[in-house]
Fold this protein.
Amino acid sequence: MSVQAREGHQGTGPGAITPDGCAVELYERLPVGDEPDVVERAVPAGARVLELGCGAGRVTRPLVERGFTVTAVDESPRMLDRVRGARTVCAPIEELELDERFDVVLLASFLVHTADPRVRRGLLRACRRHVADDGCVLIQREAADRHENLPREREVTGGLIRVVSSEPVRPGVRSVHVEYVFPDARWTQTFLSRPLTTEAFEDALAEAGLAVDTYLTEDRTWVRAVPVTARQKAVPDQDR
């Protein structure tokens, strides 16, 4: 089935589909990648994690199994129904106001590449609002060649993910079409993405009061950012 989608986003296939084109049944069956390993290497054991855009809990479950205390946030109640072992909060990320801080805020799934700069600012400000001053924000970026050499595909447990196309639709924004093929079902998803240079990404962090601490992977797709305090912002002025 398909449902009313956000502009530039749509999904097809069995089961419920969220406004941004994500199929709930698909995301429940997709295997986890290296995300839990990246998190575990980058943060203290047993940290309190705020996972933004958790979906059906693909990453949530292994984080809980590794001893992290996770608060999982998603705007889709149907996605959250699949999450196990974590506190769940149903809300758009940009509007999230939990009145608490976390050791780690996790913004994965390339959410920072949303096509709308206003939404990106909202996402990063939510990260800054909820991270402890001595905590960190882990962000997943697109690989530099994500929109090149298409179509391409990769096998996952029991199925195939095929990135069919990535076409420019307006300055700086691309429309990406992906197919998910399994023996018993097939889904498609079309969504908008705004590629970001390293400079543009770091500028967006700075605007939200964050700064890169380190790039965690060789391909620079995973980043650990830290909050910039008012005192730190004032240091350059004091040195003049």
